[in-house]
Amino acid sequence: METKSLFRALALLLAIVTAFMVPCALVGLAYGEAPSSLWIYIPPCLIGLFCFVLAFTGNRHKTALSPRTGYLFVTLGWLLSACLGSLPFVLSGCIPLFSSAFFEVMSGFTTTGATILADIEALPASLLLWRACTHWLGGMGIVVLTVAIFPLLGLNGKALMEAEAPGPQVDKFTPRLSNTAAILWLIYLGLTVILFVLLLFGGMDFLEALTHSFATMATGGFSTRNASVGAWNSAYIDGIITLFMVLAGTNFALHWRFMQGKPLTVLRDSEWRLYLGIFFGSSIFISLSLADSGLYGSFAEAWRYASFQAASILTTTGFATADYLGWPSFAQAILFCLMFIGGSAGSTAGGIKVGRVVTLLKMGAAEMKYLLNPRGVYGIFVNRRYVHKNIVYDIAAMVFLFLSSVLVSTLVVSAAGFDILTSLSATLATIGNIGPGFSLVGPSFNYGFFPEWVKLWLSFVMLLGRLEIYTVLVLFTPAFWKR
């Protein structure tokens, strides 16, 4: 029974993914692409139609999928979505090798934003929009969207949402999980629409505003220009995107609390306060470093570029308005440190997450108190709520596995003959879902020079980071496959 439910859930997910290809083809027609060139969407859409029929075939009795099935579904769902999403790029000939197309689409779905394309502007409008759609679907989570529709299939998606959700635990703020998923997507959609309108006022055309809205709210980073957001050289666009990157990196549960008229709940949130503190603190120090170097004419101009890049790296968006490899070493060091942190739990950002940093800082403080007074009892409290030791251990183990994965992947990439900084930053940029890194994977370069097997490896690393390590690695344990 659960196997059938697993296949029906996967079929629904793939049907949702291919449904987003239809408007991409229509936009291609509107932008003058020949109808004959849009046949690339027909094979995946036919597969999606078959999956839609398959999803609604069979009994509709209420079925709760187990955590074991949840982990398998989420991992398979992302892999199959990336395979299906690669077809338009391969069929069009824009990315002829499947391994490279898979890397590009996995980068989109995981909101990494790393690209193998040297000339992005040469892509047709329909494929530019499809790249952005992979971001937008992956940002809030294709599984979260699927869970919102699960009641129609008679399925309970709690285990699935917990396996995909970005953070230590799911913040369920309505009695029904499907309603929570729907609310998250409505907030996500609302912020995307607002940003889209603001970017139109900034001088972007329809396609540019739409794709950059998708990429910003998903903290993805795919742009329609080779020079990324810097191509517009607009202080207005830089400021608007900086603001919305910060909003996208905020826990979406806090957006919901604010909409409910509970601003004090937001202001008291320790993770959010530290998140803003890291953003403003790093922006100030980078601005001072840039102003002292004389690269920019004034502190205000330095702040514009520093705050944008700090927000881009902290929220793991990966946009760029300047080549920060030409910045002073101190400014680069701050950006490098931000690559380890990431945004808030429950946001669309990647990385370790600020919430885990808060918990581990309090854990360290509690341990030092215990060393001074071994008879004392020191609990860990976050937002005035006691954090159970199981959650603390879970966070500590996740961070250990994250850092261990970084070391292993750095060794794998360096085995292909690349220098340590390129290998390390490429790993950090992919496992943290950031996109640009340092050295050969800096903001002015791309990932196209890597051998195909390295691209496939980094695709796996992206998935590992997006699904928060456990969901993927648990599939490689013998215990998972035992009855």
UniProtKB/TrEMBL annotation:
Keyword NAD included in the entry's annotation: no
TM spans (from-to): 12-32, 38-58, 70-98, 136-155, 182-204, 235-254, 274-291, 330-352, 391-418, 456-481
GO molecular function: metal ion binding; potassium:chloride symporter activity
Keywords: Cell inner membrane, Cell membrane, Ion transport, Membrane, Metal-binding, Potassium, Potassium transport, Transmembrane, Transmembrane helix, Transport
Binding site for K(+): T111, T112, G220, T316, T317, N433
Domain of life: Bacteria
Chief location category: membrane
Stated name of the protein: TrkH family potassium uptake protein
Source organism: Teretinema zuelzerae
GO CC annotation, single: plasma membrane
